[in-house]
Amino acid sequence: MEKEIKEMIAKELEQFHCSILLDEVKENVRKLKAYGVDEAEIVAAMNEEELFPQLIVTEDYKVVLAAEEPVEVEMEPLVKAVYLLFLSHPEGIVLKCLPDYRKELTSFYLLLRPYGLTDRVKKSIVDVTNPTQNSINEKCTRIRKLFASILPKSVARYYAISGKRGEAKKIDLVRANVIWKCKLPNSQGL
Known about the structure:
With 190 residues, the protein is an alpha+beta fold.
């Protein structure tokens, strides 16, 4: 009987200590956020098994996840151009301002398909930068599904384009994890 009581007390003490530790973790997470540490870094530190692979944009504009075995994230040219546009703007882009980014998006597209723009591609670029159409949302959904098929869902969301309605949409990946090995386009030259 005395042994059972000691075990019960030990178990209650253990739960009490766990509760205190959890409160300390929560407080430290609040402090880290207050210092500006990105949530992705905090999650990565807490989930060692869910590492955030570096995202590399190669010299020839391939998007590669540098995991143990590098994986190319294959996208259609316009979808990739949209992704690279958002990746190059860590502050995000408000969708109603997308027409302001049409030239830059076209520049990215031309880097991916340097042989020129067909009328069909020009229309697709106009559609994707038209905030009254659903084309941009379709591209963002494709990108989100693509990363979710490669990475754990809790990690994939940091590689996708997301944001609240009416606010800037952006890729939340810590920029230290993004490596540009290519030149960014000069949208002014169009």
